[in-house]
Design goal:
The protein is of the alpha+beta class and 256 residues long. Helix content is 62%, strand content 9%. Strand 2, helix 5 and strand 3 form a beta-alpha-beta unit. Helix 1 (9-37) packs antiparallel against helix 2, helix 1 packs across helix 3 and helix 6 (154-165) packs across helix 9. The protein is globular.
Length: 256
């Protein structure tokens, strides 16, 4: 079974090199600013340290690269452990996340998604078609990864979906959010809750309780170095690892 996380290694190396250079510049600038702010530091000592940094940047770069290599190794170990858990005991990976599809299927598809991401909305359409076409071949698991730096409504939408999940209506709410993605906002969240006949009092209370579950998903994504959405990890009788949406159907076709 292939470990597709390895496909990202060249990118990690490229980013690591440029990050090291950036951090070197940051160290020099930060030291200078800090030294200026701290009047008790000997100006002569400050100049000596800065001169050493300028003359021997390779020492800083090597230290930064060594640290980044350690972090990369930790990430790889986390990815391998995740895939092993998904293979041997998928419930530990699924946890309390919403699932749909066949609970008896040997194929488990983990999706990290963002309700405001347009690519996730397109993926949602494809996944619905696949679930209808292969109802007994896959179990889909939804994990939250709201990209809050670029999607202001991603986290509120995830929170509302979690609140609907507490009343057994996650997937209906999930579908409505993607269908009405351009109208995301408090008015829509309440309107969907009303249309699904949710207990509005409980729904509003549960909105305040969603943070731990969503944070857990985000932390898992960070641990696995997931940086974008949608992101899929699959475990089937033939494949285990990161997978592209376009390849999922062929995997399901080959699944027993």
């Amino acid at each position: 079974m292939g470990i597709f996380f390895d496909l990202f290694s060249p990118l990690f190396k490229y980013v690591r090199t440029w990050t090291a250079i950036g951090l070197l510049c940051l160290v020099v600038v930060t030291w200078s600013i800090t030294a200026q702010a701290a009047s008790r530091i000997d100006p002569q000592l400050e100049q000596q340290v800065l001169q050493i940094l300028r003359e021997h940047p390779e020492a800083i770069i090597e230290s930064v690269q060594a640290y980044q290599q350690q972090q990369q190794q930790k990430t790889k170990q986390a990815q391998q452990a995740f895939l092993q858990d998904l293979k041997t005991n998928p419930q530990t990976v699924i946890g309390e996340s919403p699932t749909t599809g066949s609970t008896q299927s040997k194929t488990v598809l983990i999706e990290f998604s963002d309700f405001q991401c347009p690519y996730c909305a397109e993926a949602h359409k494809t996944l619905k078609q696949l679930l209808v076409k292969y109802p007994d071949k896959v179990r889909l698991v939804y994990k939250n990864l709201p990209l809050t730096s670029i999607h202001a409504e991603a986290l509120p939408a995830a929170t509302a979906a979690w609140a609907a999940y507490q009343q057994g209506k996650f997937w209906e709410y999930h579908d409505a959010l993607f269908t009405n993605q351009k109208q995301l906002g408090e008015a829509l969240y309440l309107d969907i809750a009303k249309k699904l006949k949710l207990d509005l009092g409980k729904f509003k209370r549960d909105l305040t309780l969603a943070t731990p579950a969503i944070t857990k998903d985000i932390q898992l994504a960070e641990k696995l170095a997931v940086s974008g959405t949608p992101f899929f990890v699959i475990n089937s009788p033939t494949v285990s690892g990161v997978v592209q949406l376009a390849d999922i159907e062929s995997i399901l076709t080959g699944a027993k």
